[in-house]
Amino acid sequence: MIKVNKEANFKRKCSNKMERKYLYILIMLFSAHSIIAQVTFKTTVSKTTLGLNERLRIEFSIDRQGADDFTPPNFNNFKVLAGPSQSSSFSSIQGKTAYKLTYTYIIQPSVKGTFTIPSASITYKGQIIKTNTVRIVVTEAIEIPKDPNDPRYLASQNIHLVAEVSNTSPYVGESISVVYKLFVNINKVNVQNTREVTSPSFSGFWNQGIDVKKWVARNGTYGGSPHRYVIVKKTVLIPHKAGKLVIDPMEMEITAGVPIGRRDFFGNMLMNDVSFTTTSGKKTIRVKALPLNNKPFNFTGAVGDFNFTVTPTKTQLSANESSQIKVEIEGKGNLKLVKLPGIETPKGLEIYEPEHKEKIVTTLGGLKGKIYDQYAIVPQFRGKFKIPGVSFAYFNPKDEKYHIISTEPIILHALSGRSNPDEAEDSFTTNKKNVVGNESDIRYIHSKTSLISKASGEDFYGSDLYYLLLILPLLSIPLGIFIGKKKKQRDGDIIGNKRRKADRLARKFLSQAKKQLGKKEAFYVALEKALHNYLKAKLLVETSDISKERIAEILQNKKVDEATINAFKTVLDNCDYARYTPSTDVMMQQEYDKAKEVITKIDKQL
Predict the structure, then answer these.
(1) The domain spanning residue 309 has which CATH number?
(2) pLDDT of res. 436
């Protein structure tokens, strides 16, 4: 009985300990929850509906000291213009203290729609606390009210970002420039700070910026009134395709001071600082295609005004002594995109890979300077060697004409060294020899002969070969019938015959281009020539003298469908552009396959 009571008392004691333990845990959790519940961490915004061109002030504030590890929300569909700026305040009124820590951002929407800004988070006494979410409605850009007393309106009317384009209608490959200027009416506002928000994009152009090391204020006019301006950005562009190309705008955030009409104690004008975003606006460039009339066969896309020379360092040398031959283009134009022509050497001259060098300066007028390839030539034998002349073709946009510069052949004299073993002799010499008589040269002449009869040999008549040749025509009859049926069946396959004929025609005209696969320049020249020769054969017109639009019109009259015509024009355009843009063997094979396919389609429809 005593033993049972002891066990019961022990169980009651254990139960009481467990209950007290759970009670302590519940008290601690309740206390922590009470502490957290008393903390206020919230998100506030300056407005919940705004236009695309407006800005939003968003604040995250907590009313307790000791909070850290602040993590902002993800501002998707918004651009952060400023922030986070941190501020704190402390006050004590009638024994009651108040504290506030605030993180502030200035953001601007990038697209219109309805968005929810997620919660921000912060750590307080080991616990992570989150703010409320905020719903924002973004509408179309709104017009700034024309209130002469509104500092933001005054700033926007007296500060302008302008993009000045040197030529809005260039040729493909012709250099143009874009200069971005910031105009300010200093009599009404002053600029305190600037920041490039969005850089302009130049899709369809080769581009290179020119460094603006220092902003220099100059006098100018905007809208007929005097302004001061600075050049903030300069870029040189070279279009690499024809058609309408758009230069996307540049955007800048401006912080400006606007006078409020009052002065301070020292007589200085008091300013109201405002921030706004200004844009240069889009610019449309209409790029003209290079003319097809009189286009040289060896034209590779050089556009500008150039000089072309091929010069050797010396023309008289010994065997195994080298001469340097420089192939050089100098002038103004799209030098970065120009491919230098190569030189050909006869047998007996060893030529090494050229050393390529460029000395180019980028100016607002375009690229100036020179590029050259320098070859090392070494004769292997003595003698004279002729290096053929080289020609270079370019298009000058000033006179709108193609020009060809051809150089004279170069004659190299190898004065010493071993002779060429393959060289033919200039003359032949005959050595005279005395005839020495020899009795053994005169043999005995037989006066009698013995004949052997062939009658005992096997007769052809009745032989195996005789019977084989006799049966062979009979065996050829079923073979001829079989071949005839196949030919008749093939002749009846009209669609198949047309396809095979078109494929043969495509291979015929594209055979030269296929041989040049892997050699970019030669391949595209041969491909373009093949397309023109095909049209010349099928349409009986000189396609080199008419435009792509005229070719399209002729094909339309021949009832060729629009998709095939567009595919043909695309291949022609690619031949034009690929000469001065990077290209791989895979890309060349794809262009060859496209050309073969389009020729086959046109031939079937014609």
Answers:
(1) 2.60.40.740
(2) 47
